[in-house]
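Tokens as discussed.
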């Protein structure tokens, strides 16, 4: 864990990937492009962008990246990065918090960066979605179960 007195910086390669994937977002209705980058337990990186459709039930960037990760055969998240189009926090929506929770441990890190890739805020999964419901509540294996 980093020293809380020292500002955390985001790796330049991650920032570049986030900006690139955000640039590929399909957002004809909201004009609000979002990008996500997930790092699995194996260290592999998966990216996703939001994809809007006319009936307004599109795909969030986090969901897009999770789909890429699962399609590649992985199911465990170590880190999550989210980038929006501006200077304000673009945290995962409620649905995506639950999606991320499915593949996370309580200590999975979620970092939200501004449009230029500067860290705005860092959360653990447990901080982002406290007292959450997950696979273990249904009697399934989960990294959350103790």
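Sequence:
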């Amino acid at each position: 864990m980093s020293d809380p007195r020292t500002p955390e910086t985001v790796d330049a390669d991650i920032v570049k990937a986030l900006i690139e994937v955000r640039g590929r977002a399909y957002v004809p209705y909201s004009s609000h492009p979002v990008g996500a980058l997930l790092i699995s337990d194996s260290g592999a990186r998966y990216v996703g962008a939001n994809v809007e459709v006319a009936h307004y039930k599109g795909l969030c960037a986090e969901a897009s990246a999770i789909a890429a990760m699962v399609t590649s055969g992985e199911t465990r998240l170590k880190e999550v990065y989210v980038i929006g189009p501006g200077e304000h926090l673009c945290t995962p929506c409620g649905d995506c918090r639950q999606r991320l929770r499915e593949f996370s441990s309580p200590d999975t890190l979620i970092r939200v960066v501004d449009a230029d890739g500067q860290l705005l805020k860092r959360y653990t999964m447990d901080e982002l979605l406290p007292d959450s419901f997950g696979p273990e509540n249904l009697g399934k294996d989960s990294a959350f179960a103790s």
